[in-house]
Amino acid sequence: MLSSPRTPSHSDAALHRAFVSVLGPDGRGVGAAVLVGDSLVLTCAHVVNSALGRDHFETAAPGPAQAVRLRMPHVDGDRELSGRVEHTMWRPPRPYASAGDGASAAGTLPYFGDLAVLRLGEPAPDGAEPAPFLPERDGQEVIALWASGSTATTLRAVPRAVAEQWVVLDVVAGSGVYPGFSGGPLWDRSREAVVGIVVATHLTAGGAAQGFAGALYAIGLPAIEAELPELPPLAVPMAGPGRQQMLMILEQLLRGSESVRRCEERLSGKLRRTSTQQAADCHRLLTLAIGVRRGVPELLEVVREHLADTDVGGAHRSGSLYDQLVSAARVVSAREILTAQQRRDLVGLLMHCHADPTQVMHSVLPYAGEYPSVNGLTDVTDLLEGYDPPDGQQMPPLLQAVVRIALTECSTGNPVAQDLDAWVARVALRLGIPQAAVDQFREDIRPAAGDLPATPVGPRIQVELLPLSPGHRFTYQIWVWNGDGRHEVVAVQDSEVSSEQVVAGIRAVLRNDVHEHAEQAQVEFFLAPAWLRLEVDTWQVTGDHDDGDFFLGISRPVVLRSSGRTRETFARWKRRTEALSSSTPLVLDQRSTSSVVAQARLEATPDAGVVIMCCEQQHQSQVLRQCLQAGVHTVLWHRQNHDAETAKWLLDLLQGLRHADLPETVRLERAKALADPDCLTHHGHRLSLLYDGPDHRPPPLAPDAWALTQP
Prior knowledge:
This protein is an alpha+beta fold and 711 residues long. 32% of the residues lie in helices and 20% in strands.
């Protein structure tokens, strides 16, 4: 079924001017792409392979004689264009972060790469414009267009999670997913920018024919820039505030047309844009910088170099016009202080680092009321770039973070620490920060650099579970995490299986992939809020020929965690977590089944981190959702009994108990219930635990290599 036709939005005009259809050998659309430069088009490598009639996962770059047929349906639908792959920007799908580690093979997950840049053989049609890009951060609804560009098949989705490589999105009900969406831009109407390009969809069994998608996947802007360092800076939405201030200062700094011309030539070269030569003026110079990512920092660098070359009366000294230009630039481009090359150099170094991203964020911003969600060190530094130095300090949070990362890597003997220190020295010089200030900061924090969180005793087996309605069949992905930095996917099941087969998969991971503290491993099920009541702790494998039955709930601690967390709940979660040692549990009984009452009781006790839920089974999902929205991360409940006696028993169970001991305590209660089969009323029989938090969230479920579709 097709999604309902939508009236084209005025805010989609920039999307339409940049949207490109990719045609197959028969002239039909096989995918989409987006115009990113005057003659450059960005899409997925597997879309190019399909357009040329090649194998979906072909890794060799197409030859110069192999042209891809293109069309821009919203600009000139009758004109056919051709594009050839830029070999320096060909990234076929691969299962490893490094391009040299091998191609996809059965059982591996190719969620790296899958990008290609085409160079047009002729100018783009009149009216075509490169699309503006922004990172995905706000979780707003986005749209994607099918290969034809028709708005009748507009796909709507909401980002669920952002990982270092892929953004995972939930498809909005009523939207269909069909071959032809891949490679196309994901458009955020509220910000009028592209936040990624569609790369794959995970279709549930039986839903492929109807286009029902369990999840949609996109390659986000940070991954695009990291994978394609040769790609010219991408366009961004034009900034407004501060622009006139910069223009006024530039006109005072760059006196004479020759100075403007030289700066324009330098900036065009750095941004890989065509120089306007004699037509250059300060307005054109500023517009050139503002229109692309990291263009404003590049402009500052160009002006600084020009002033140093011409030695204009010390105009670049502190308190000068140049300092005023820097201040105005922070208004125009508040989130960017690094040039494109400085950023690429840093990303390349961070690929070899293993510091804890969350620890770095908390160390640099210790008094922040709410911490953004981060996915790796690259994301941390990207976020910190937008913060100003604290009052009385010269070191901006970005440089503070890199210094801390370097100290952590140095303590482990990682040689990349020296390159990080050199990077900090170079950037600090460009930002006007004395080397003495950098050295002093490094010495001040050196004793605390190794103060890392305590390592858990045992590993965690993390199961990202995707139930299929009515909840009797499942697909899943299993991760292993331990305190030594290991966090990797070890098993993927993309076809529907029963709960017994899920348990068999977990047991196989425990046997084959957990080599230390296997008996202490805790099993964590990540579930969407609607499925948190699944009785995963009662699942078992029966009749195993090695050592009999395997019952998850008593073999080891089993807890539920939610995959539906949002940044908005994090501040509440943090407050409740900090008060765990002193707060008392909150009981939500049958009177709290009204969402208004539950919300009021949760808001009236903002420090309660543990909730005991005692209400009828049909209301438990709603109350659990209320707890998640209020920032509660630990909920204890009985799936069947909901009387006052059960509430009292659960409260007594928590008396004098450390929060960290809760999973093991619940496991023992389940074991006691099974140890006395004649006692059918023991509360441990159907005891369940939501033991949630934002730490160590597995990356989004990635489909098996051979289940990737060509949307």
